[in-house]
Here is the input.
Amino acid sequence: MINSFLSWSPWQIRLLLLAVTVVVYANSLDNSWHYDDRHSIVDNTAVHSVSNIGRIFSDPQAFSANPGSRMYRPILLMSYVANFGIGGDSLLGFHVVDIALHVLNGWLVWALARRVLGGHSTALLAALLFAVHPLLSEPVNYISSRSSTLATAFVLAAFLSLHDAARGGANWRQHLAVTVLAAAALGSKSIGIVLVPLCTVHLVMSRAPVRTWSLLLGPSLVAAVYVAATRAIIGKAVIDAPVRGFVAQTATQLKALAFYAYTSVVPTHLSVEPQFKVGDSLLSPEVLLSAFMVASVAVGALAALRLCPAAGFGVAWLGLALLPSSIVPLNVLVNEHRLYLPMVGGVIMAASIVAAARNLGGWIGPALILVLASITAVRNSDWATEERLWGDAVEKGPGMSRPYANLGKAYLEQERFDESIATSRLGLAINPRMERAHYNIGTAYLNSGRLEEAIASYQMALEINPNLLEAINNLGNAYKNQGRHQRALAQYDRALDLAPYHPLIHHNAGSAFLALGERDSAIARFRISIDRDPSERETHKGLVRSLRLDGQLDRAKQVLITALREWPGDEVLLQLMARTQMELGSLRGALTTLEKTGLSEIDARIRLGELLQGRKDWHGARQQFEVALALNPDDARGQNGLGETIYAAGDRMGALEYFRRAAALDPKFPDPFRNIGLVFVRAGRGVEAVAALERSVSLEGDEVSGKTWSLLAQAHVLQGDTEKARKAYRAAIAVDGDDAEHYHNLGLLEHEAGAWAEAERLYLAALERDPKISEARYNFGNLLLESGRYGEAVAEIEAVLQENPDRAEAYVNLASAYLNTGQGPRAIIAYETFLQKYGSGDELRRKVERQLRLLRDAEGM
Here is the structure.
């Protein structure tokens, strides 16, 4: 049947190859990003803009957002830049390019096969086999494997150029073309290094004239320069820190050759991570059998050189193209995309064998093409999503650990956290030192709010791989979510040592600095992040908040104007603009901006009143609430807001009436019930406070604020129910782990109950979140004094007095600590300072005066 195409022109053949390839891969256009795509493309800002061309060609780290993933592949990266420039991050554009490259390679294989095989129909068969073979589907479906298709295109083009130049007499243009194409191949992937040995074998087999050997000079020089320039990367993989030793690598790759041979002939059980183990001995039966097979093929190829030179050429191409992955120890033992370039030789060999078997009938080739095309179309569907790809790998290779980790990651991205944890643990049962599985578990815990468990998992991942950037960053995020911002910053600094250009880490550091009130540092970090990645709107919001808090309102407004051009309907940006306009004194502008968010005039005025409350502009807030209530007296939010302004003015009972009115108008509105509880807490009326606050908790449902839980805890304390108070404070911490007061207040309860170890932990947690919370430091100093740790007590109480030297009662505790450390004269000074600052004439003063007289007598003063 293929013989019927003998009369077709080259362009008709090319259109046929195009049509067949597009039909076979049409169902791959909607497939998702996959594992390495995330760090090498999606998160790699180096390939998002043409402005990074200089870095792409000079810095191997431009290959990936992960600091440990360094490769020199500038041509590959430029193809990504082109994709982003034309279609942004649209996956369709990336898939179209990958299919187009596979079509191009099919054409080039056809051109090569015509020269090697001679027969027109046999060359077409080779090209069609290449176009539809399932083993070659991975580089077409998996964007990061474009390196294989791109390098193959340049190797084939360079080989054809050299072949034609050798036949017709080489000129300088052909020398230049071969050299440039060789450089492009190496700039796509290091497998381009095989071009020189492939061309050498071809020149030997074709008995080319000596003068044509000069065509190898350019590619050889390019290869030498490439090896020298990337020696640090190559040396680490081969010499300095190989993932396995020489014997294990040799045994493994001998097994791999047999595996590749089988999957090439029977490509029905393909997997992105097949069931395949490291070969631990050269003398194991399976390794010896594989070695025998390789030797037999080599001998057969030599014998075939006379009978069927094309088959011998195909075997030679296949073997030479497999050498790089066979020699260099890689983490993944076998991989389909490694066969993309070698299979050029494989299909030429297969086509020559089919051509020689004419007695089997003319339908063997078409039948083979049809079967392989069907298998490839089915295989494409396995690449549809990460879950499907790695679920398939788990099913086909249940003894391999990596598929479980990657399937766990897929579940993470779908927010199926329990499944991610369970699947990742299955991987750890096979390989306990799989850092990615620990990372998945930590991230699932982080997103579930189980921060201590998340921290433990990240620490286990980092014990295995101290440079796992994502784990370092997320460990910082876990600390930040706990309100432990200094610890978070230490992790972000550690991450930036590995990836100084990473915009997300700069953003996270900016957020931590902002929470600590270090506005200058926050502004600097947010600006760096925006410079690296202007497309992240959350960073613009962080920068605006930092500038506002720093008083740079005009600059904040300019950033907002720029951001709103990019994201005109973003509600948070509009709210920030309204807040900034309000702070600049433009209440009318703020109202107009709030109405752009879709708010009515009443709602906009209530929101503006709330913003003014945040600035403690109670008079301005009251005006806005009163105007809103004039428009609608039955608005519960307006009544509640007006009550809050009255409360702030000191009229608690007057405010209570407004709160009750708001609660009556909208019984499902939790804020007035919380405010009623606040009034009763301040009035010391525990029963009424608990009733109102428990109603607020029930109305808030899953969104109960830390403020509500804290007030409920205080109400329980008024009733003497410390156990319920503890539970409420713990709930406040779970919701709002950033608030130091929650830890301090719970610490006080534990301190009073005699649970000193827990109280100490809580006081320290409070101070870690806010080192300036003097009450926590003062009470911690008292705890140290009570527990007999006098030297530590001295340091803490002195720190309190340095912040607040007029805190008279602290001098009494300091004197007691001095006495217990044998510092009598200092104790006398502390008592004297107390008497100077303490104005009351109560029993405490008289007690200190007596103690001071006794102490002076003892010291002879």
